[in-house]
Amino acid sequence: MNDPTDRMVRNIVIIGGGTAGWMAAAALAHRFGGTGTSITLVESAEIGIVGVGEATLPQIRYFNRSLGIDEREMMARTSATIKLGIEFCDWGKAGDRYIHPFGAHGETVGPADFHHYWARQHAQGEAHDFGDYCYPIVAAWNDRFALPDEDPDSPLVAFSYAFQFDASLYGVFLSDFAKKKGAKRVEGKVVSVQRDGETGFVTGITLESGQQITGDLFVDCSGFRGLLIEQALETGYEDWSEYLPCNRAYAVPCAFTDTVGPYTRATARKGGWQWRIPLQHRIGNGHVYCDRYISDQEAVDQLMSTLEGEPLADPKQLFFKTGKRRKLWNRNVVAIGLSGGFLEPLESTSIDLIQSGIVNLLALFPERDCAEADRDEYNRLMDLEFERVRDFLMLHYVATQRDDAALWRDMRNMEWPDSLRYKIDAFRRRGIVPEYTHGLFLPPSWLSVFIGQNIVPKAYDPRVDRMSGEELTANLERIRSSIADAVAGTSLHSDFIKSHGASFDGAAAS
Fold this sequence. Notes:
The protein is α+β, with helices and mostly antiparallel strands. Among the domains are: 11-54 and 166-238 and 325-370, FAD/NAD(P)-binding domain (3-Layer(bba) Sandwich); 105-161 and 388-494, no CATH class. It contains 15 helices and 21 strands. The strands form 5 sheets. Strands 5-4-14-15-16-13-17 form a 7-stranded mixed sheet.
């Protein structure tokens, strides 16, 4: 029984497994292992997990590193491939193709940012494709990969990378890690929740078996159900469907027939978009769509007819509503993962939002009373994360010139949030990309989508004109050529993966 004079959180209970639950358990067990604080994760093998979050952002590497996880071991156990960015097909206009990379374009050639020099060349009709000045883009399209170079003068230094992996295997990997650190797993379905009559805090749960589990702090990773955050605490949900209307998806894996490229692909469709995520042992595919623009049958037919290999399972349908809980931390319950909110996986942000929730919880880790100031700050930070990801996802939809389907016409003509309208207008007029103090996507990401979807500044920084035309052309050609030469000397992505324990013959875990 807890000592009433002890203000420390001594019992942490996580509801739900999957990627969110086991990432939380691993991080908490790593932090509190050996301190006398217990971490208990409750999950039921009978309750399935969504399990389609297979593409990540570079931040996952920092999460793994903070836990002391060996990258090579993780890649081998999760059937991982490398991800240098996301290829977007048909988003600006039908036939367009660009990559949002994990790295910047160009290099410093003068006092203005590089894209202003490119914009001057573009205005004169002399510029190469913007992607030609970015190493991870050229490497991705040539199926090449090498670890970033430590030489500051190398084109291989200014980029990062992420992973494409089997999310269920990543959960198993972290489960093993967390249990070695002292976390305890309990099998069972939650049938009731107990709350303190005075504070409204959750004090415990009862399982179908009759077992009762008490706790000081509860982490809700129960998925869309929001077992604690919504069903018990009735926190409420902010519906963002007016901004991001896609509300359904089909997901299905298929066999390989082609090269395993180091990038994820998102192809715009009539009523949404389709993903392609290559792993070592299969390709993950999905069709995200809005049922106002396309029927379920048409959506699944389109997905199955465009697979590049034999399907390895029946398509699985998912239903969701874009948005977030009004509070991701309510009383002594913190919602992480789908229980806290959902933003469609267009930019692979699902796992990163899980990571942000965990990192912010650790930074603001409370005493048993879960002080209101801590909760408010956590909710402020997570609100910013969700809102700025929302705006970045919206940019892909509204920055389109497509007029061939109702979805694209409606998105282009919709009312935009003021925060998004300001960023688009600032870039279109003068090439300015306002930079946030907080937020996942930095200026290089916004630049990639702006220019990739044909939003080019009408004016550039006047300091660019200090450089003569001949000097500008020479500088841009030098950068483009050095990147092309570096990529030509880079090993194949498949060779790198094989050196990290890959198996492309189907022998990897499935």
